[in-house]
Task: inverse folding
């Protein structure tokens, strides 16, 4: 994925590791302080890199924040994708996706603050994150419908509904409290989906 | 509802009208500019009131923003409540709630920016808004379960799932695009809920 500022992509493995360290430090910095209070010096201190290294990859605080939103969006997708692909049917795929999403959120609680703040700092990335997530869910639902696993008329509203369920279940059971296993929540929701979207 | 700063509640009908005008102006100001760029002078200009009138009711920009979050939360609740109460059963109540919610959002598109920015400006009101909304949905689901209209074991996860569906359907079909009637979305989701939560 292209995350560094234009013309600043790392060319070596060592450069890629430094870029990764800067992005992880940016997640901690913006997750804890928010965009306005967060600073480039706070990021380089957390990453243990010199200020010059930051500017090797990014032009500005805005640029690293935009990169971080796209990076977190990609990290979530990559974390849930293998479990979704391995699932035996469409509903099991959504179940695995939700379970792994809650796990990811518990390990990266800052993701909500970062994606949510993007609405104000980088509206385009915010919109892209949700639009592409909904498109992926809709494509999976349509494939499941073609296999006869769910009703034939699944569409955008179902996809947005499932995305909204997942986002708020992640907030309540991943960020706010961890009072139930992720698998239990995902199983309960899969039952809800399996009956709610059953072929007619 | 107590929205003015402590000791500053209006005592006359005229005072209540001025307070209402200030809150509506604050919704427009913060909805358009965000909290950081929005200003008290922008609010009083939009409301057509003197700066002194603002301080008659609010201590600060923070105070009027906090009041606005609680006011918008209450406005949504009051807008959907009569239709929910008039519905013939629990699923029809959720259907009516979603349909009226999307209508409200279309008429008050700034609500998303304001509630979402509260996560950063006034975390307590943000949390209270979603916690109380989920509690209301869960109470309705449990009442419907007691009447045998939905499965007996409905709980917090179902309530958070429904809230998340509604929030994201409102964003997609209320704020971003108005490409389908609110009633059609709500009917599709009610069918989903009716089968998904059917008594076993």
Result:
């Amino acid at each position: 994925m292209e995350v560094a500022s234009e013309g600043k992509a790392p060319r070596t493995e060592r450069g890629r590791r430094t870029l990764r360290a800067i992005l992880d430090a940016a997640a901690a910095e913006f997750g804890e302080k928010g965009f306005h209070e967060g600073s480039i010096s706070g990021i380089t201190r957390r990453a243990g890199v010199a200020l010059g290294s930051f500017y090797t990859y990014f032009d500005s605080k805005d640029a690293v924040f935009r990169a971080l939103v796209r990076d977190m969006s990609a990290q979530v997708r990559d974390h849930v994708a293998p479990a979704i692909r391995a699932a035996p049917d469409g509903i099991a795929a959504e179940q695995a996706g939700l379970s792994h999403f809650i796990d990811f959120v518990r390990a990266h609680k800052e993701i909500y603050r970062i994606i949510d703040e993007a609405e104000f700092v980088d509206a385009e990335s915010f919109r892209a994150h949700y639009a592409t997530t909904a498109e992926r869910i809709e494509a999976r639902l349509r494939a499941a419908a073609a296999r006869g696993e769910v009703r034939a008329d699944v569409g955008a509203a179902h996809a947005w509904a499932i995305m909204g369920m997942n986002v708020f279940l992640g907030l309540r059971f991943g960020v706010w409290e961890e009072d139930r296993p992720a698998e239990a929540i995902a199983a309960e929701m899969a039952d809800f989906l399996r009956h709610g979207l059953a072929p007619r």
